[in-house]
Amino acid sequence: MKQSIKRNSINDILEALGDTPQAEGLHIYISKEDITESPFPYPFRSDSYTIMIILSGRSKIQFNLLDYTIEAHDIVLISPHTVTHVKEIEKSMSLIAISFTMNFAINHTLNRTDITAFEFFASKTALSLRLKKTEIESLIKLTDLLYEKNTIVSPFYGKELLIHSFNLLMFQVAEIYSEKYASNVTKMNRKEELASKFIKLLEENFKKERKVQFYSDTLNLTAAHLSKILKEVSGKTAGELIDAAIITEACILLSNPVLSISQISDELNFSDQSFFGKFFKKHLQLSPSEYRRKT
């Protein structure tokens, strides 16, 4: 059942964006026109790692149930673990996105031990950072170079040029991450740490554990105190986040036509399909079958 969960491949994403594939396992997307509406109105996972650099505009995006506003000069790092949901394009956007598979990264790293430098992709959550103007300019130059080496194959040292271009960009991102993430970690307070632990716990247990008490007991908090902390940090209570996790997973499963609604209900541990349908409609004002037809 888990293998039936739909993930968007690089090619699926390119098709939605109206772009054509480049090399196997690597694609550099540079928006030629401003993006005015979400090409993905439903939550999804990808089979690739993505570095997204926002050049202009603003959007509300949800990563693993947490809301972010991303805008010009932001860099967003997304791993295949991340459930992404573009909620709204508030201001038309232009962006650069470098997407690659783990196989590509492994086969195009100069030294196998160097891949440990890219620890930012080990996280199960997306990481959004604000860049300086000089950092944006540097990343754009390196992306242009990588795009050239990925689309125009030289008969002389073509693979070597691609490998070095890819590594140069990745180490530039790693440097930015190391500098900014270190300072971000020191700023994380106790409430943010608890919220992070709750999200991790939720990802692992939401299909079977829907009571707030389970999560509060595991974190050694009262249910009321846990909900209060989560409301302050994320804007949602524990119960709302639990429901959101179930709905998000249901939407991902419904995007796969191979699965019946009954199978999806069973996967999410609802007592029967009718109860699942009522729960789904309560939150999205659509029945599962109506949602499937709409998307």
From TrEMBL:
<protein>
    <submittedName>
        <fullName>AraC-type DNA-binding protein</fullName>
    </submittedName>
</protein>
<feature type="domain" description="HTH araC/xylS-type">
    <location>
        <begin position="196"/>
        <end position="294"/>
    </location>
</feature>
<dbReference type="InterPro" id="IPR009057">
    <property type="entry name" value="Homeodomain-like_sf"/>
</dbReference>
<dbReference type="InterPro" id="IPR018060">
    <property type="entry name" value="HTH_AraC"/>
</dbReference>
<keyword id="KW-0804">Transcription</keyword>
<keyword id="KW-0805">Transcription regulation</keyword>
<dbReference type="Pfam" id="PF12833">
    <property type="entry name" value="HTH_18"/>
</dbReference>
<dbReference type="GO" id="GO:0003677">
    <property type="term" value="F:DNA binding"/>
</dbReference>
<keyword id="KW-0238">DNA-binding</keyword>
<dbReference type="InterPro" id="IPR037923">
    <property type="entry name" value="HTH-like"/>
</dbReference>
